[in-house]
Amino acid sequence: MRLFRLAKILAVSSRYGLDEMLLEHEPSGRLASISRVLHFWRRFDEPQAVRLRKALEALGPIFVKFGQVLSTRRDLLPPDFADELAKLQDRVPPFASALALAEIEKAYGKPAAEVFTEFSVEPVASASVAQVHLARLPDGRDVAVKILRPDMRDVIDHDIALLDTLAGLVEKVWSDGKRLKPREVVAEFAKYLRDELDLMREASNCSQLRRNFEGSTLLVVPEVHWDWCTPSVMVMERMRGIPISQKEALVAAGVDLKALSVAGVEIFFTQVFRDGFFHADMHPGNIFVATDGEKHGRYIALDFGIVGTLTDTDKNYLAQNFLAFFQRDYKRVAQAHIEAGWAPADTREDEFEAAIRAVCEPIFDRPLKEISFGKVLLRLFQTSRRFNVEIQPQLVMLQKTLLNIEGLGRQLDPDLDLWKTAKPFLERWMSEQVGLRGLKKAIELEAPNWAHTLPQLPRLVHQALSRPAAPDLSPFLAQIAAGQRRQNTLLALIAALLAGILVAPFFF
User: Fold this and answer.
1) Which of 247, 435, 497, 500 has its CA 20 to 30 A from that of 72?
2) What are the residues facing 220 on neighbouring strands?
3) Cβ(64)–Cβ(193) under 8 Å?
């Protein structure tokens, strides 16, 4: 099967000129010349970015998914390529309804009609690894049923192996291949993709995010119906709302777009800095807005296959970077990068500071409509390249999410001042980590453990005080010192005698 898959990939690559795109980065240029000679009949009227997108669409869902992920890596791609690949977000055709029904029967051991009182055979949404159908449980609750594409695991294993081979080739022929680590990018993609193939994992992500925002007036997360969840089928509460991309419909429903844009920023920073657990696939297709009842005007999050996590260390350094950035303290930004090990220890702080200032200073005090985070990130990546800053794998998803937030904010309220909106939240978070508020929080976290530890303290103190005093070792140490002195004296005498023996022939 792998040989047939490889043959198809080579055929599609040749049809859209992918070999030419790759080989033109080979330093000598000889391989690109040979390719043009061998494919003398090819003529391309479309830009390279368009041809790459069409090639990935022709290769199927896995390559479409790879294109979606790659579109977020503006450190690897020129802006026109990243923009074109971003179009892959909502262009995945659904699989046949008969296959969906077969997957349900395989998962439950009985047909859909015996599992649900109602089941819509036509999907309401389709993605690269799964699609969603509407249904009703026997107790009358309306649900959304997410069904994994059939036989995805075998296809993924084959395609990932081929992508890894291609990434290895990129490392060899592209001058920047080793620094950008394309094989690590593929490995990271494979990890997230395989996680998405386990819908129980996605259900747990959904449940965790719902718990984090329980009682929130900003974000609504569907409830997971665990009794109907399997690794290939996920059943969750049906959410009703308007896609965030339909701005006119939101206005007609009485949604305050300015308030919505501010809420989006707060949701992002809450997920990142409070929880260290964030929805990492927040493109417009996965975000709705509730318009009914008490949930009116709240965000609705969907599709939890990709989430990002951050350690306390990551959060601390990120907060320092953001705050220093908002305060235009570029020296502190440079220092934070070096302290975190993101930049080499021998990096000249003043030069790094000046380079960051040149990128960031022009965008301050300007509304979102006049700022492109994509271009800013691209310039920051170029700066990183100059100073040999390693791209942090744990921050790639965060960068992607930040770009998604930019897109949403630009659509809802182009006049949104991101800096003024985010700065108070970050300052509040930092104050909770240090000072009296930080101490109070630490005590609250540790207090439950004291119930076990405090009763033991008197006994432990008594044991420590009751132990026999350590023996006085001073006489023994004095003897050792005296012996050492005698040894040193003897060695000095031997050295003097040897020196005398060596020097004597010159005088006699």
Assistant:
1) 247
2) 300
3) no
Are the C-beta atoms of 300 and 216 separated by less than 8 Å? no
Q: Give the integer Cα–Cα distance in Å for 135 and 149.
A: 18
Residue 243: Cβ within 10 Å count = 16
Residue 154 in contact with residue 124, Cβ under 8 Å?
A: no
CA distance 21 to 46: 13
Does a structural domain hold residue 129? no
> What are the pLDDT digits (tens) for 132-173?
999 999 999 999 999 998 877 777 777 787 778 777 777 776
Distance CA 253, CA 241 (A): 10
Q: What is the pLDDT of residues 346-378, one digit of tens each?
A: 888 888 888 888 887 877 766 656 666 556 655
Q: Is residue 258 part of a domain?
A: no
Q: What is the pTM of this model?
A: 0.70
List, by residue number, the catalytic residues.
Answer: 281
What residue has token string 């449980």?
137
Q: What is the DSSP code (8-state) at residue 87?
A: G
- Domain with 398, as residue range(s), is 310-438
Q: What is the spatial distance between Cα 133 and Cα 124, in angstroms, rounded to a whole number?
A: 6
Neighbouring residues of 429: CB distance < 8 A, sequence distance ≥ 6: 269, 273, 274, 319
Give which of 387, 374, 283 is closest to 337, Cα–Cα.
Answer: 387
The answer to the question of residue 328 being in a domain is: yes
Residue 508 banded pLDDT, cuts 50, 70, 90: very low
pLDDT tens profile 169-192: 777 766 666 666 677 777 777 777
The total number of structural domains that make up the chain? 1
Q: Is residue 359 part of a domain?
A: yes
Classify each residue of 434-473 as buried b or exposed e, where b means 16 or more C-beta atoms within 10 Å of its C-beta: eeeeeeeeeeeeeeeeeeeeeeeeeeeeeeeeeeeeeeee
Contact 23, 35 (CB under 8 A): yes
User: CA-CA-CA-CA torsion for 459, 460, 465, 466, nearest 10 degrees?
Assistant: 60
